[in-house]
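Here comes just one.
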Amino acid sequence: MTVVRDVPKQLFIGGVWQDAESGRTLSVDNPATGEELCQVADAAPADGRRAVEAAVAAQAAWAATPPRVRSEILRRAYDIIIERTEDLALLMTLEMGKPLAEARAEVAYGAEFFRWFSEETVRIDGGMMTAPDGRNRLLVTRQPVGPCLLITPWNFPLAMGTRKIGPAVAAGCTIVLKPAPQTPLTSLALAEILTEAGLPAGVLNIVTTTDAAGVVEPLLRGGQIRKLSFTGSTQVGRILLAQCADTVIRTSMELGGNAPLVVFDDADLDVAVEGAMVAKMRNMGESCCAANRILVQSSVADEFTQRLTARMAALTVGPGTEPGTDVGPLIDLAGRSKAHDLVQDAVKRGATALTGGELPEGPGCFYPPTVLTGVAPDSAIIDTEIFGPVAAIRTFETEDEAVAAANDTEFGLAAYLFTQNLDRSLRVAERLESGMIGINTGLVSNPAAPFGGVKQSGLGREGGRVGIDEFLEYKYMAVPVGA
């Protein structure tokens, strides 16, 4: 297709598109068909080092660039992304699988990070005060942390890039971006857009690779990277944190999730079912803040389950490029197998599949929307991030029981609760151990809000006013009074 053909397939280092030093390439496949879309450069450790050197070389000049200049570059990039919505949406659908309607929504969401941080660029502030003893003036300023390594996942190819690149560019940091090997094309297209918007050579460098461990570890231990921002699994996050320790690299981590969705007996069930559909089925369930455990108060459990099952069963599964598709393929066969194994384990332990639960025939990585009821507490699905279109329902009797079940996990990224009682909504939200709470809504992501979790769901926040803080250091200067 034209959108695939037009995207550069090389590494982007120092403002130059170039092959991997070894000449190796990796295959980018369409999960709807299993067929290859194209080949892109497959970097080795030496390519990663060259990318870091380019970022280091560009850092001083970029940090000295006026904030308004950085702001305008991001704003122009936002405008270009919006203008190219259809091409970028199709590109994402082809390499990742999501329906075109969802891909268009991601373009709008992802572009907004550039617009938001273009506005925050000119609001980086400091302060001055007189020391309590009156002897010094205390001046505080903020400066870019330095060259950053940004590692993005495959599930939101555009938004995960803009959510990390936006604040780094705004703060005056240079970047080495390593996108997921399953979905590199959107990141490569983003590099073209930022270049067109006026981003200087060396500020953004992109390294695509199948050897993430081999490329990343030497960069973290090399002493030149000063900031790591990673979105991915908690297991990998732990490894990266250990690697960052030797050179005390500043980190922000958006890791795994196991989001509870709690429906109380006083909830508006129309709102609750709609919210559950959004929280569960956005991006085919391949989202770190997807509803992983649905907890419903017993007195309304049957009605809620019937309504949710009817909605799930009515969804149309197919290639994301086809009109009318509600649910596209999962990212790969391994992802589909994981979802199916979790379903089989739950059924083996006593759960009932009210819809779905069977592997479809034919090509592609499709899995049907599935509703499980009567899920036993020892089922693997209770403790494992599903990353697929599977709704696992359990019941509870009391508010305390619901909160205890919701918090019974090492994760704490997102949670959702549905109730028409204002006191209960605030009381329960305060007790839930999650960084983000959706109250009577299944969507919490917003560029103007601080995205992130607690416990083993990560460190730091992305988006909102605090998003740029992750890329800035404080510097304090003491000036004697009268000097």
